[in-house]
Design brief:
By secondary structure, this protein is mainly α. It has one domain. 74% of the residues lie in helices and 0% in strands. It contains four helices and no strands. It is globular and about 40 Å long. 22% of the residues are buried.
Length: 77
């Protein structure tokens, strides 16, 4: 069962990155990581979304941001 959950999680991350890349020109970064980066710049929607995600899973957006940078160090900071 753990393997199935990991596979599903990996698929959802892949889907998130592809959707962000295609629709938002995110260069293979997750929406959570992108919002974490933009929240630091003061964008209201991103600040709100990071707050919502942190209420559900504390530290989610920061972990996504760090993970995105590990996979693609050329992403904007």
């Amino acid at each position: 069962m753990v393997a199935v959950k990991k596979l599903l999680f990996d698929f959802l991350v892949w889907l998130d990155r592809r959707r962000n890349d295609k629709w938002l020109k995110g260069r293979c970064e997750t929406i959570s990581g992108r919002c974490y980066r933009n929240a630091k710049k003061g964008e209201p929607f991103c600040i709100w979304l990071v707050g919502v995600m942190d209420a559900i899973d504390p530290g989610h957006c920061k972990r996504a941001y760090i993970g995105d940078r590990k996979l693609n160090p050329d992403l904007p900071i």
